[in-house]
Amino acid sequence: MTGFVLRRVLAAVPIGLIVTLGVFALVFAMPGDPLRELAGDKPIPAAVLAAKRAQFHLDDPFIVQYLLSMKDILTGNFGTTFAGADIAAQLQLRIPVTLKLATMGLVIQWIAGLLFGLYAGFKRNGVVDRVLLLATLFILAVPLLVVYFAAQYVFGVELKWLPVSGIAHGYPLSYLLPAVCIGLTGFAGLARLTRTSIVETANADFVKTARAKGLGEQRILWGHVLPNALLPMVTYMGVEVGGIFAGALLAESIFNLPGLGQFMFQAIKLKEGGVVVLLSTLAFVMFIAINLLVDIVYGAIDPRVRNV
Amino acid sequence: MVSFDRPTWRLFRLPALRRGSWFDVRRVSGVLGVTLGLALVLSSCGDGKGSSNGSGAGGTKSEVIALAADPLDFINPLNENSSPGIQIAQAMFAPLVATDPTTGKVVNVMADSVTPDKTSQTWTIKLKAGNSFQNGQPLTAKDYVDSWNLTAEGSNAWDNNGFFAKVEGYDALNPPTPEGATPKPTSVKTMTGLKQVDDLTFTVKLKVPFSQFGLTLQYLGLAPLPEEVRKNPDAYKRKPIGNGAYKLDGDWSAGGDIKVVKWDGYKGPNAPEADAITYRFIPNADTAYNEFLAGTVDFVDVPATKIKTFKTDAPDGWVTGVSSGANYLVMPAWDQRYKNPKLRHAFSLAIDRKALADLVGLATPSSGLISPDIDGYRADACKYCGFDVAKAKTLLAEAGGFSGPVNINYNTTSATGQLFAEAIGNMLRQNLGLEVKYTGKTGSELTELAQQRKLDGLRLGGWGHDYPSIEDYLTPMFKTTGDANFAHYSNPKLDALLAQGDAQANPETAIKLYQQAEDVALEDMPLIPLYAKQNAYLHSAKIEPRVSKFTGVQALYATFK
Predict the structure, then answer these.
(1) Chain A interface includes B247 (CB < 8 A)
(2) What global pTM score does this model have?
(3) CA dist B194 to B67, B109, B144, B174, B456, Å?
């Protein structure tokens, strides 16, 4: 087990380098000069421009800029953003926000997805199954932006049940609306996968055997169908944890939550390669950790894929 | 070059335009908002109830002002020229002089007198006695001189460094630096042009005469910092010590709302009515707008996406005001095909400005190069800004026609850039029979290409003044060395007229000279005037923002009901 974890962590190092280099290259390739982007059309005095360019290493070649960024990340010396914000302080402020939003969103997504998926799978072609099919189709078809703004308008502006935006009302109230939006827009995929997985497993030969042996329906479902149907679901849920960061990017921007997603959004629009790479690295580390966790969970669920 | 719907504001007055505004959430949300508007017909039925509870601590008259911008990380007016930063500075710092909202004339605030010498090259600034900083220290001439020298030192890289480029001795603090090198702190720390005369008097000697210098003193980028802040500015990033009507209320952490309360020690004029103000940062302008509709903020900018609906969303709570922003079509001086003034006049006459202004919304067709709220504006300045297709065709023929397609560049980071570019393109195509194509690029890329004289074709641009003077339209955009000379335009005659106006002590005569310069620019037409835009704002029932023809709409100076 330890060997397995070690191997995975070591394998992640080159992948991490490739990913961060790629992300940095993408930001680097974005057109326009970042300092000019920040200043708009205001002419910047040459001395000021030179001081800022030197501070952010903007005159160095691409690979040097990348290595300097990586050095900063690895040594924990994050520096400031172009606009002068202290990055370490920003992270301290923003990580909890994103974590709260992501966990709440994921919990809603998992509960709704598993509940509806399992029920629809067990009682396929029933009312719930048909309604779920339609509902998930609808949810998958509506753009996230529309959902976010519509929810904000209906529940925040018109009904006044929840805050429109910001974190002034604290946890959990301020996070509820965006988390429900993330959860509901994300649950459709999980629900459909769960349903399909259950249906497929329920039609497998070993289930027929179990039934022929005279096992009760409940025991067949919980003891035989579910454990075997779980594998694709666990994979999907793992991927979703990684993907939640992408969802937070949009949700945090619209609901004005000062989290990592909003930070990423600002950094991309200002071409702040260093910050983008730092946040990508964080996301990457999280992704690797979750994947590792998923693999370990696999082993627990299914002895056939137990890792040694 | 600035985006079409968002002129370059560099100074006071206008909320939420600068920081990151080239691709800010507002723009993106513009597109999103339109999508949503289509999807949600019901969204136009807000009822404009907007009275917030007022969350300022302690005050009976409190207001919450939404700033559709990324949160500030520090407050230092000398190192700040973004619009939200300037708005905060307006509350916490008092300028030397200010524009009177009723008369448009400059009145003294911290200054007792501002007097030029005969040539307008050396200015004597005398301060009123009895003013102090919020830490109790008296405000003296030394505070101004030292704060300005600190800002002028290039190696500090403060945002308002460029303001002092006109002062004698600036260059010694800003030596040229080889590319890629870190500028070293200079051994010279003071500009020779700045001299303290006594505790309350100092003089500023400029490199060349400049009759408008007195007007520029209202810029808050010239605010004084007290000695303890000057010694270690970083330590005071989040606990600024101002000299204005408001001070920070409690602690402020980066990224959070900024709460200010009235400071008892403020003895200057123009103190606003509010006892407490909360500035809430909401980067997404559509979200900020929704916050207003939900009644949690008292004042908000109307984003571009809501221009068509804000009057029904808040029927009793909207105001509009001049934005001093003039918008232009920019001719590339480096392309010989666009060189002939007759061709430029033809282009100008082929544009239906009325239709364009209707499309933009809250805009008025331009008839000159400067904004209507500026002293020296003439409604009939431009001879070629009407809509006359027949004359346009004749002029184009006289100019020898135009070969090849006209390329119109637009800013892809603006929600409306492409729409407006295509509207103008269609007018040129239909009215002059020209072939038109369009190219989308980011704002900074357009600026960069134009500066290298590599941009193909026309582009859209806008400008807003730094200080309310006709000169601040002409010098930056049309002087050969102008720092926002988008078209790379140069005419010695115009340069000479500007220099004469700069050296003229009599304001009336100076304006006449500037108007002659404007006439030269309109005849050569490096920029085709298009429209001037108004800004719209929503306010709650309990406040009435100050609306002035000269200073725009200001929630800071709101009256309470």
Answers:
(1) no
(2) 0.82
(3) 36, 20, 9, 16, 44
Residue type (1 letter), B468: P
Reported ipTM: the value is: 0.81
Distance CA A129, CA A135 (A): 10
Provide the residue-wise pLDDT of chain B in tens; the chain has 561 residues: 433 333 333 333 333 333 333 222 222 233 333 333 333 333 333 333 333 444 444 448 999 999 998 888 889 999 887 788 889 999 999 999 999 998 888 999 999 999 999 889 999 999 999 999 999 999 999 999 999 999 999 888 888 888 898 999 999 998 887 766 777 888 899 999 999 999 999 999 999 999 999 999 998 989 999 999 999 998 998 899 999 999 999 888 877 899 999 999 999 888 999 999 999 999 889 999 999 999 999 999 999 888 889 999 999 999 998 776 789 999 998 899 999 999 999 999 999 999 999 998 889 999 999 988 888 999 889 999 999 999 999 999 999 999 889 999 998 877 788 999 999 999 999 999 999 999 998 887 888 888 888 899 999 988 888 888 899 999 989 999 887 888 889 999 999 999 999 988 888 899 999 999 999 999 999 999 999 988 899 999 999 999 988 888 999 999 998
Asked if A165 lies within 8 A of B183 by C-beta distance, the reply is no
Q: Which of B35, B15, B214 has its CA nearest to residue B114?
A: B214
Residue linked to tokens 């004749």: B394
Cα(B43)–Cα(B246) distance, integer angstroms: 37
Chain A residues touching residue B25 (CB < 8 angstroms):
253, 265
In angstroms, the separation between the Cα of residue B267 and the nearest Cα of chain A is 33
Spatial contact of B26 and B100, defined as CB atoms under 8 Å apart:
no
Q: Which residues of B touch A163 (CB under 8 A)?
A: 296
Residues 235-264 of chain A with CB under 8 A from chain B are: 253-256, 258, 262
Q: Does B47 touch chain A (CB under 8 A)?
A: no
CA angle B208, B213, B216 (to 5 degrees): 140
Which residues numbered 142-161 in A keep a CB inside 8 Å of some CB on B? 143, 145-146, 149-150, 152-153, 156-157, 160
Option in A52, A81, A146 nearest B35 (CB): A146
Q: d(Cα B123, Cα B193) in Å, to the nearest integer? A: 10
Rounded alpha-carbon distances, angstroms, from residue B142 to B147, B150, B203, B217, B545: 8, 12, 11, 16, 36
Task: For residues B52 and A30, give the distance between their C-alpha atoms in angstroms, rounded to a whole number.
Answer: 42
> What values do phi and psi take at B52, rounded to 5?
-90, 165
Cβ separation of B20 and A54 shorter than 8 Å? no
**Sign of the Cα pseudo-torsion (B163, B168, B169, B175, in order):** positive
From chain B, the residues in CB contact with A168 under 8 A are: 257
Cβ-Cβ pairs closer than 8 A, A with B, add up to: 188
B309 CB-contact burial (10 Å; exposed 0-12 / middle 13-18 / buried 19+): middle
Residue in A38, A55, A253 nearest the CB of B284: A253
